[in-house]
Design a protein that fits this description.
By secondary structure, the protein is an alpha/beta fold. The protein folds into three domains: 66 residues, Orthogonal Bundle (Arc Repressor Mutant, subunit A), CATH 1.10.10; 142 residues, Nucleotidyltransferase, domain 5 (2-Layer Sandwich), CATH 3.30.420; 167 residues, Nucleotidyltransferase, domain 5. Helix 8 packs across helix 9. The structure holds zinc ion (ZN).
Length: 418
Amino acid sequence: MMSGGKTGRDSMAKVSTVRDLRRRNRSALLRPLFLEGRLTRPELTGASGLSQATVSNVIGELQNEGLIVDAGTVDSDGGRPRQVLRIDADYGYVVGVDVGETRIRTELFDLSMEQRAAADHPLAHATAVEELADTVAATVRSVIDEAGVPPGHVLGVGVGVPGLVEHDDEVLVHGHAPGWQSVPLETLLRERIDQPLLIENGAKTLGQAEMWFGAGRGRSAAVIALLGTGVGACVVTGGSIYRGSTSSAGEWGHTVLQVGGRPCRCGGSGCLEAYVGADALLARYTGLTGRPPLEGVAPEAAVAQLVVHDPDDEAAAAVLAETVEYVGAGVANLVNLFNPEIIVLGGWVGLLLGRSHLPAIRDAAARYALRQPFERTDITVAQLGVDAVAMGAATLPVDELLATGAVGATQQRAALRP
Ligand SMILES: [Zn+2]
């Protein structure tokens, strides 16, 4: 009995090893193909580190499943034209949801990450979490309808949220807004959305998008900083997002720049966000002048007015100069802590500041950072714009697809066949 049980365990272990190997091999081909778009077989062999025979077998398998298709030929040096392969953009679709503080943006992409449908929904301040979950689910259904794709071919839905996302038995979201303490958002959304669901902090989803398609491409040590109403960061080390023990790492906005400083909505004081978050910029201007920069306009327009201010607006100039100094100090802290190759300024406030004041931010950072790591750090502006949180959220199910070698997706689609 004992030995029989052991043999049973051994053969089960063997089955799972074979299955793991199959997933790993498929993943090793799918990931470079997804990130590069089009590759030849020799390029895939080089990128995957697999043998030519294995590459041939796995490509055949993926072609049979319709996951990869021919994409024409390229000339090779002196030889026959070489066949190029790509992932079939219409094999499946992914949805990304950016739950912002003032709106929900939902986008549907094919597997070439071309946007096929999008929906925006304004969010009232202090929306109840159940109502928020209803709205997210409704926007997911609306983009699937608009794109006209079979709901069963939507491989997954990624959701980027503001605040801490704690990955434990259940995904809990801790936000600064009222009613967002330990919110079981995953459970609420699963009750309303049929597709596989993944939730992540918005700064991390933006970071993943910039690493895959934007300023971070090809880098392995990077920090993507998100400055908006909230301030956060996505720390990438060895090509992977650094999460910490419960996935909350990267809360750059709540690192303290001033002991006993301005109150922060996290409950602390002197946090970076309390100086360079959008509300802080506007509040500091109002503190100097007794009036907001532009009355009766959206915060985006008011902050833009501050950042690219009239030459004679001394209060705006003062707030801006101080903001540049604080952002520079915050960037210097990232340099000193993480020694990244590149720091990318993103988020709508980060883009406004970075596009018009990057040299000044670099100069400020140089004053606070250690010289050696600073000299080796590129500081740049995000390439994907402000909507990249939704695209980044859509990369969550794509990442899952690539990591599992699309084995589950093939099963999901097979189960749908009549
Ligand atoms: Zn704080």
